[in-house]
Specification:
By secondary structure, the protein is of the alpha/beta class. Helices cover 38% and strands 17% of the residues. The strands form three sheets. It has a seven-stranded mixed beta sheet with strand order 4-10-9-8-7-5-6, with helices on both faces.
């Protein structure tokens, strides 16, 4: 198979084997997991994934920003195999070298020049849970501010600081108290309908003069937690000048900035961390997803001086597991040596191709991206920017039937988060199929 072959769909979808597996899945596995369509995976390599019926798909999702080095990259496979033979688990009561090496690397790439410290977790939500505890511990303050539209995870503290969909919280209350939400500095739909050049200042003014004067005393705020680019909320990009202003506010009132880079981080946007595009140094960064190429792992990294909690105050069993640690070390090497630059270059190409496509389809209200974190928002009307979820859902489903995996996010956006190894030729294949899909969905929806 040459690298640039096209998707190949040989059966109806889902195919016969997939249907059998789906039956068992639906019978025994919790239905609370969101599912976009019935893709039943058998194997994957690079940017291609095969289902159990032998159909081949182009992967524009990467396990939701997880398979950053592509599926089963030979260097990752080798590193894992070697480690499995030596040591699989030892527990956080003891020490091992790979974990220390990985922490050293994460400390180095944190955008503050100092002895930044690391805590290893097993998922994004655990990273955020820990970061929130650390912020409360280190400031000895109580309250947390977060953004409307945020998604930080599904355990209690992370769920409580999330506000992207109420289904995430329905019947799970009471939530963690002391959380306040403010609008996200959305570049496409600026808060308060303010003109884009004034919106950041207006939002900061709202936080300082409404929230901090009427809602919560700023000297009791422990942290502001945010995604620099909102993921589950709809691939929403911030106004360029907002985060430096928020940094100033945090310094003025002494609260910490927790930057959730679980989806946007680790080279995907063309820099180690998305917040670096916005010239802001946070106090704590949380990561997971893409760090270990698919082996479950997460971490939070804090600026020198913050992680000074005593022994026993926070811990877990699996954090820094040797298999995950070697996979992460090799992942970070690959990202540093080639993939971060590839994400930047191919991401720019992808964005330009999608902007071309936007000219032919008024249903595309916005195309936005940094590196290989790209969102397409579907609207009913470009002026009113009314959401068009039905159009989005049909595009995602039809793309699957034509052999390209995309996923939705937010009210009516579609996300493109491919492995960071993709080439321009893969982009051409995906965009050609997307163009076909858009045309067909348009025809279907207009009844012709
Ligand atoms: C920004 C962000 N934070 C946290 C999480 C939660 O991560 P996990 O599902 O690994 O707990 C996610 C997952 O989508 C995410 O996108």
């Amino acid at each position: 198979m040459t690298t640039f072959e096209k998707p190949e769909i040989k059966t109806e979808l889902p195919g016969p084997k997939a249907k059998e597996i789906l039956k068992k899945h639906k019978k025994y596995i919790s239905h609370s997991y969101p599912k976009a369509y019935d893709f039943v995976a058998e194997k994957a390599k690079g940017v291609w994934v095969w289902d159990v019926d032998g159909n081949r798909f182009l992967d524009m999702v990467a396990g939701v920003a997880v398979n950053s080095t592509g599926h089963s990259h030979p260097r990752i496979v080798e590193a894992i195999k070697e480690q499995v033979e030596k040591l699989i688990h030892i527990s956080t009561d003891f020490y091992h070298e790979k974990e220390a090496l990985l922490a050293e690397k994460l400390s180095e790439i944190f955008p503050y020049n100092g002895t930044n410290m690391v805590f290893f977790t097993n998922s994004g939500t655990e990273s955020n849970e820990g970061a929130l505890k650390l912020a409360k511990y280190s400031t000895k303050r109580t309250y947390i501010i977060a953004f409307e539209g945020a998604f930080h995870g599904r355990t209690y503290a992370s769920m409580s600081v999330s506000a992207s969909k109420t289904v995430h919280k329905a019947h799970f209350g009471p939530l963690m108290p002391g959380v306040f939400f403010v609008p996200f500095p959305d570049r496409y739909r600026p808060p308060f309908n303010a003109p884009p050049d004034k919106a950041s200042a207006q939002l900061i003014d709202y936080i300082e003069n409404v929230i901090f004067k009427r809602v919560v005393p700023p000297e009791e705020v422990a942290a502001f937690i945010f995604e620099p680019i909102q993921g589950e909320g709809g691939y929403i990009f911030p106004l360029e000048d907002f985060f430096p202003k928020l940094r100033k506010l945090a310094d003025k009132y002494g609260f910490l900035l927790i930057d959730d880079e679980v989806q946007a981080g680790l080279g995907r946007t063309g820099k180690w961390f998305a917040i670096e595009h916005y010239d802001t140094v946070p106090d704590i960064i949380t990561i997971a997803k893409g760090i270990a190429s698919g082996i479950p792992m997460g971490a939070f990294i804090s600026k020198e001086g913050i992680m000074s909690w005593p022994m026993g105050s926070h811990a877990n069993t699996f954090g820094g597991n040797p298999i995950a640690a070697v996979s992460a070390l090799e992942t970070l090497k690959l990202i540093e040596d080639e993939l971060m630059e590839n994400a930047r270059v191919v991401g720019e190409y992808y964005l330009s191709k999608l902007k071309e496509l936007q000219k032919d389809f008024e249903e595309i209200g916005d195309v936005r991206g940094k590196g290989l974190m790209i969102g397409i928002e579907f609207v009913k009307d470009r002026e009113t920017k009314e959401y068009n979820p039905e159009f989005r859902d049909k595009v995602v489903l039809k793309s699957f039937h034509k052999g390209v995996l995309f996923l939705g996010c937010g009210p009516s956006a579609m996300r493109i988060v491919p492995p960071l190894i993709i080439q321009k030729e893969h982009v051409d294949v995906a965009v050609d199929i997307l163009a076909e899909v858009l045309k067909e969905v348009r025809e279907e929806m207009s009844g012709s």
